[in-house]
Amino acid sequence: MAFDELKSFQETGSFLYRHPLIVRFSLRAELLDLKRRDPESFLNKFADARDNVKRYKSFLNSKTRTDEQKALDRENLKKHEGRVDIFADILKEE
After folding, report:
1. Residue 25: per-residue pLDDT
2. Number of other residues whose CB lies within 10 A of the CB of residue 52
3. Which residues have CB under 8 Å from 70's CB, separation 6+?
4. How far is 30 from 34, CA to CA, in rounded Å?
5. Is 45 a residue whose pLDDT tops 80?
């Protein structure tokens, strides 16, 4: 995956944004810019990310969800927990 990212950057000058590190750094830069431009929107997105974590944890505890749905819920939970971590890191920097 990392090799594909580097190859794409070398050939086209842009990343594919599939490798988790590239996605994380690009999201972080985007959120830092948002925090600088519109702090209220930044905090609203942070609250949304925390709410999404709660929602997917609730879905995982639900007995009515199928195994396929729970697998997707685990992926989404992991994604949103990563976003919350990025928000928390940005806020701790101040």
Report:
1. 74
2. 17
3. 59, 60
4. 6
5. yes
